[in-house]
Amino acid sequence: MFELDRKEVDSITFGDTKYRLMESEKGNRVIELYSSMSKKWNVSVRYNVDEQWNKMKVLYEGMAVRRNQN
After folding, report:
1. Quick check: is 20 in a domain?
2. Is residue 52, in this structure, part of any structural domain at all?
3. Whole-model pTM?
4. How many other β-carbons are positioned within 10 Å of the β-carbon of residue 10?
5. 12 within some domain
């Protein structure tokens, strides 16, 4: 399988869950999710990427704050 030339823009890690925001040279963005079973990154979101990424950041940051308070 071939690798696309994408660079990592941002990432979220919460426990074993890992997401990263990737951008191609053309400016196309995708969100990838790491699979611990296959040990590789899989595309999970291709459309409305910026909106979905912002929602995920708020969600996981809120969960991290609540986790640290307990």
Report:
1. yes
2. yes
3. 0.82
4. 12
5. yes
